[in-house]
Amino acid sequence: MKKKKAVILLSGGLDSSTTLAIAIEEGFVPHAMSFRYGQRHSCELEAASRIAAVMNVRKHVVIDLDLRKIGGSALTDNIDVPKNRDEASIAGEIPVTYVPARNTVFLSYALGWAEVIGAHDIYIGVNAVDYSGYPDCRPEFIKAFETMANLATKDGVEGRCFSIHAPLVNMTKAEIIRKGVSLDVDYALTHSCYDPGPDGAACGRCDSCILREKGFIDAGIKDPTRYCG
User: Of 95, 65, 50, 68, which is closest to residue 194 (Cα–Cα)?
Assistant: First the structure.
């Protein structure tokens, strides 16, 4: 039987790389999509390219769009990235690293490409850790986008329905890491830091680094991340 295609949103981070591995485990031919959207650095795109190559992605496309023109985020604007926050602070409010409507934009591009290549499954690596901080990482958002996808597309209205998969949404970072290790994800190739050093080393102090490091500790697995200093 011919394998079905899937589009996977691949940032180059821990979560999206694990999601890619899950899509492959579930029998899909992976087509990965990444974005050069005006983020502070290119490290994550370099990581996405490494991951796509190692995991034998059928095709990897990088979309150029400039969210710096609207700003509003520490990842795309002249706003300091928060550092050295505890878990309560990280989970307590929507952080300034939230990029307005980013997942809506990314999923829309993925939906368009999926319809063109005849894929009806789209994977995104949102998870429980992000749930409390980013509104576009909630299960309600994923369900609503799936409903919209099947109302807004030719395939959808003709009965070839799309499914939006968020396999990590109810998993902790430790659970995600254990799952990825079981699927041979090489986390040394991934990048999560919001504010890396000039040589690409992770800062170790931003929210993303803190959550990533804690995830490895909780999973009881050695953290392969290269940190500054």
Answer: 95
Query: Tens digits of per-residue pLDDT, 84-107?
Result: 988 777 777 888 999 999 999 999
Q: Which two structure tokens, joined as six digits, stand for 113? A: 């490409």
Helix (H) or strand (E) holding 152: helix 139-152
Distance CA 63, CA 152 (A): 21
Q: Which stretch of DSSP H or E encloses residue 128?
A: helix 128-131
The token pair at 45 is 């795109």
For the segment 22-48, what is each residue's pLDDT rounded down to a tens digit?
999 999 999 999 999 999 899 999 999
For residue 161, give its domain range.
5-219
Domain count of the fold of the chain: 1
Prediction pTM value: 0.96
Tell me, yes or no, whether 10 lies in a domain.
yes
